[in-house]
Design goal:
Family (chain A): Belongs to the universal ribosomal protein uS14 family.
Structural class of chain A: mainly alpha
CATH class of the largest domain in chain A: Mainly Alpha
Strand content of chain B: under 5%
Number of strands of chain A: 2
Number of domains of chain A: 2
Organism (chain A): Immersiella caudata
GO molecular function (chain A): structural constituent of ribosome
Helix content of chain B: 40-55%
Oligomer: heterodimer
Number of helices of chain A: 3
Protein name (chain A): Ribosomal protein S14
InterPro entries (chain A): Ribosomal_uS14, Ribosomal_uS14_CS
Number of strands of chain B: 0
Structural class of chain B: mainly alpha
Strand content of chain A: under 5%
Distance between the termini of chain B: 106 Å
CATH architecture of the largest domain in chain A: Orthogonal Bundle
């Protein structure tokens, strides 16, 4: 969705279309988070009238898909891969292996016993 | 020895005031657990590193002050193009006249 995309590139790492899309989603989620949480609060509050809660449910479902936190996926910051990404290093398993073996990641050493 | 319920409720109320939590003795579902959670947006946004200043940005910033820095790569590129032009291998000049109507039609 182009309306969420930044007009000027604002990512410093490797990027491709998937990464730019994911970053746009992240920013959309961050912007809409208070609104979503408020709606979720209204929905879960059983002391409020049923009509209010139903309206809140509808509003929440009608929000854009990009504002949904489940749309976010951690991607490799060095190769853009979406699977097998190590959360601690923000890298896919192969990128992690190459960088670790060449000594680019501090404190990581190949185990041997 | 039993403690009266009213007294226990008072204690609970005081506790809630002290630790700024919601006083809810009936255990109603008020949805407060949604509000208790911290906002995750900032940590989501900071996953990818922000764009830093590049060599090109520096050159552009300092251009008004006429502070130029040698850009070897760009110089080499220009030299290469000049060499091509000298040998007549550069890109053809753009045609300024309006294109012919017949020129667009392709042969079958």
């Amino acid at each position: 969705m182009s309306m969420f995309r930044a007009k000027k590139l604002d990512i410093g790492c490797y990027y491709n279309a998937f990464i730019i899309r994911d970053h746009s989603k992240r920013k959309a989620v961050a912007a809409a988070e208070p609104e979503r949480q408020a709606l979720r609060y209204i929905i879960r509050n059983e002391t409020l009238p049923a009509r209010t809660r139903a309206i809140a449910q509808l509003q929440l479902t009608q929000m854009h898909a990009y504002t949904r936190p489940t749309q976010i996926r951690n991607r490799c910051t060095m190769g853009g891969k979406g699977r097998g990404v190590l959360r601690d290093f923000k890298m896919s398993r192969f990128m992690f292996r190459m960088n670790a073996l060449s000594g680019n990641i501090p404190g990581v050493k190949k185990a041997s016993w | 020895m039993s403690v009266p319920r009213a007294r226990l409720l008072d204690l609970m109320k005081a506790q809630c005031q002290l630790f700024s939590t919601t006083f809810n003795p009936e255990g109603l579902r008020l949805g407060n657990k949604v509000l208790r959670k911290r906002l995750l947006g900032p940590s989501f946004v900071s996953y990818y590193p922000p764009k830093l200043v590049t060599h090109k940005d520096m050159l552009r910033e300092f251009a008004p002050f006429e502070l130029t820095i040698d850009n070897q790569k760009e110089d080499m590129r220009r030299d290469h193009i000049a060499g091509l032009k000298f040998r007549g291998k550069s890109a053809p000049k753009k045609i300024r006249t309006a294109p012919d109507a017949n020129a667009k039609k392709k042969k079958k």
